[in-house]
């Protein structure tokens, strides 16, 4: 680790890496800094959890794709359309402004 970088934020062992607000959401939110590899996703509206292979680092508070999402597709969180993809997003990829645009500012570039 670079001495100028902050220590990654990690939850206690056994804690989920991501929380999905609702069944059917396309994304989940990181509750700790997550590195590529296997991760646990817990759903807040059910007892379900799932294992997800994370493809790239996802910082605390940021989103990961729970499924493949095609180009120009709606992105759903909280059972609400929050954005539109700028490019295809694969399951396990980091979801942020580089690959989605806000539904609120849909006409923005």
What tags apply to this protein structure?
single chain, 109 residues, mainly beta, Archaeosine Trna-guanine Transglycosylase, Chain: A, domain 4, six-stranded mixed beta sheet, 0% helix, 35% strand, globular
What structural class do the secondary elements suggest? mainly beta
CATH topology type: Archaeosine Trna-guanine Transglycosylase, Chain: A, domain 4
Shape summary = globular
Q: State the share of residues found in helices, binned by percent.
A: under 10%
**Terminal CA distance:** 35 Å
Mean pLDDT metric: 89
Q: What value does the Rg take, in angstroms?
A: 14 Å
Short description:
By secondary structure, the protein is mainly β.
Question: What does the secondary structure layout of this molecule look like, with pairings?
Answer:
Layout: E1 18-20, E2 27-30, E3 37-43, E4 49-54, E5 63-65, E6 74-77, E7 80-85, E8 94-95, E9 100-102
Parallel strand pairs: 1-3
Antiparallel strand pairs: 1-2, 2-5, 3-4, 5-8, 6-7, 7-9
What does this structure look like?
This protein is an all-beta fold. The protein has a single domain, classed as Roll (Archaeosine Trna-guanine Transglycosylase, Chain: A, domain 4). It has strands at residues 18-20, 27-30, 37-43, 49-54, 63-65, 74-77, 80-85, 94-95, 100-102. It has a six-stranded mixed β-sheet with strand order 4-3-1-2-5-8, with no helix packed on it. Strand 3 (37-43) and strand 4 form a beta hairpin. The N and C termini lie far apart (35 Å). The model has no long low-confidence stretch (mean pLDDT 89).
């Amino acid at each position: 680790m670079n001495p100028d970088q902050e220590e990654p934020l990690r939850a206690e062992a056994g804690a989920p890496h991501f929380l999905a607000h609702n069944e059917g959401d396309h994304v989940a939110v990181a509750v700790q800094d997550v590195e590529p590899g296997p991760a646990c996703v817990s759903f807040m509206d059910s007892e379900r959890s799932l294992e997800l292979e994370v493809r790239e680092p996802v910082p605390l508070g940021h989103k990961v794709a729970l499924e493949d999402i095609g180009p120009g597709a709606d992105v759903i969180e909280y059972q609400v359309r929050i954005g539109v993809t700028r490019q295809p997003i694969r399951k396990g990829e980091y979801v942020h402004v580089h690959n989605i645009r806000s539904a609120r500012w849909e006409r923005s570039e």
